[in-house]
Design a protein that fits this description.
The protein is α/β, with parallel strands linked by helices and about 500 residues long. Helix content is about 40%, strand content about 20%.
Length: about 500
């Protein structure tokens, strides 16, 4: 018998929300007693008062993490034992799926249907996958002569700090939690101040699963206080960061100012989605183009925010994309039928609307959208917006907007499309739509991006690496390659002569 659809509004009204930090196995207030309001973009109401941690709290969390690491209670536990604990952790997240999905939606405004169908399952899959992987990784024996034995082993890097963004709070955290904990590190998670609630909640689930005190810590707070203190701390061995390119550059500066800690960055994007005249299915390509920019309200680093269309099919493609956008009006994120939710907060809403104004001023043609809507709710909602006649030098074609705003650029041929696609500082994702397999391979090779989609967009699996070229970052999340970020290679040379 199917489960009844939850009354999400009733659950939202009765939700018990914890706003404390989690340090050394327990929930605590910030050392200074400071808090900030966690405001829902759905209707502007205050969800919780959240601990505003700072350098003093970072010191406490790092000390706890270091003590746990040196004790070996997790770092020297057998891989199969870490696996069992992490599988319990993933199972607890799955058991609390509806609670966590509600928190995710209340906190950052994404539709509850997406939180349930995308965010929570992807989080569970990620942690489960890394748990299952850790006892299947083998070390190496180097091909030396008979008078020596050289072992190449992976060891946990130590204390890992993870600074994650607000657009996919749990998924982005899981991409770092999974490999870092599986490898035996101690872990400190600094969620965005815009969306800290699920990170705080899963700390209790980690402890319930059996992750030892000090191994998993959560520090809500602002980037310029808690985030900076974590990135500059002399006893943090590694920072995994997802966020803007500008902030990513500061992470590198902080590493240089402190202990040269490893810094791994997944930063901004302005991804080109190229539709050529020989596209095998324009209906499918247009629907995918709309989803590539409007899913998650366009708040995706890999969003297909530049639609580069060959001239011969431009009018037909744009007509279909506009129609798809008009079928996705912003709605109540707690309604399971809603496809487009709220922008994360007033600041980001103002940023998105500001870029729309700049697009008009610089001469782009607004085909649809462009307005703030549902203002009577007290929330933050912007219509799906499509600009045509966009020139590559325009601001909306160059800068990451992080909202539901599509810039359509017309090109004469594939060569021009690739040149424009590669022309920016970013290189996170790209796509090409063509029926010619040889052309698809050639263009995929030519595009300077960490992920290239062919006749699709945003296809995804935990088994494949994700990350960028150029100023979109360094290192890779997901897949076995993520272990490279959270382990050190050690050579042990044994003389047998």
């Amino acid at each position: 018998m199917p489960h009844p659809t939850p009354d999400w509004h009733a659950r939202a009204r009765s939700a018990a929300i914890n706003g404390n930090a989690f340090i050394d196995g327990r929930y605590v207030a910030a050392a200074a007693g400071a808090t900030f309001d966690c405001v829902s973009p759905i209707d502007g109401r205050v969800l919780a008062r959240v601990a505003a941690t700072d350098a003093a709290d970072v010191d406490l969390a790092v000390a706890a993490a270091r003590c746990a690491f040196e004790s070996g209670t997790w770092s020297r536990r057998a891989p199969r034992e870490r696996k069992r604990v992490l599988l319990r952790f993933a199972a607890l997240i799955e058991r609390h799926a509806e609670e966590l999905a509600l928190l995710e939606t209340l906190d950052m405004g994404k539709p509850i249907a997406d939180s349930l169908a995308v965010d929570i399952p992807a989080t569970v899959r990620c942690i489960t996958w890394y748990a299952e992987a850790i006892d299947k990784l083998y070390d190496e024996v180097a091909p030396t002569g008979h008078d020596a034995l050289a072992l190449v082993t992976r060891e946990p890097v130590g204390v890992v700090g993870a600074i994650v963004p607000w657009n996919f709070p749990l998924i982005m955290a899981a991409w770092k939690i999974g490999p870092a904990l599986a490898a035996g590190n101690s872990f400190i998670l600094k969620p965005s101040e815009k969306s800290p609630l699920t990170a705080i909640r899963i700390a209790a689930l980690a402890a319930e699963a059996g992750i030892p005190d000090g191994v998993f810590n959560v520090l809500p707070g602002y980037g310029h206080t808690a985030g900076q203190a974590l990135a500059r701390h002399m006893d943090v061995d590694c920072i995994g960061f997802t966020g803007s390119t500008a902030t990513g550059k500061r992470m590198l500066e902080y590493a240089g100012q402190s202990n040269l800690k490893r810094v791994w960055l997944e930063c901004g994007g302005k991804s080109p989605n190229i539709i050529l005249a020989d596209c095998p299915d324009l209906d499918r390509a247009a629907e995918a183009a709309a989803s590539a920019i409007f899913f998650n309200q366009g708040e995706m680093c890999s969003a297909g925010s530049r639609l580069i269309v060959e001239e011969r099919v431009r009018d037909e493609v744009l007509e279909k994309v506009v129609a798809a956008g008009r079928r996705m009006p912003p709605g109540d994120p707690l309604d399971p039928a809603t496809r487009l939710g709220a922008i994360v907060d007033e600041v980001q809403t103002g940023t998105v609307l500001g870029y729309i104004d700049v697009g008009r001023t610089e001469g782009a043609q607004l085909l649809c959208g462009g307005r703030r809507v549902r203002e009577a709710t007290g929330g933050c909602y912007v219509e799906p917006t499509v600009f045509d006649r966009v020139r590559p030098e325009m601001t909306i074609a160059r800068e990451e907007i992080f909202g539901p705003v599509l810039a359509a650029i017309t090109v004469r041929d594939a060569e021009e499309a690739v040149r424009i696609g590669n022309s920016l500082i970013y290189g996170l994702a790209a796509a090409v739509w063509t029926r010619d397999l040889t052309r698809a391979h050639r263009i995929a090779r030519a595009l300077r991006a960490g992920v290239v989609y062919v006749n699709c967009y945003d296809a995804d699996d935990i088994t494949t690496p994700f990350g960028g070229f150029k100023q979109s970052g360094t290192g890779r999340d997901k897949s076995l390659h993520a272990f490279d970020k959270y382990t050190e290679l050690k050579t042990t040379w044994i003389d047998l002569s």
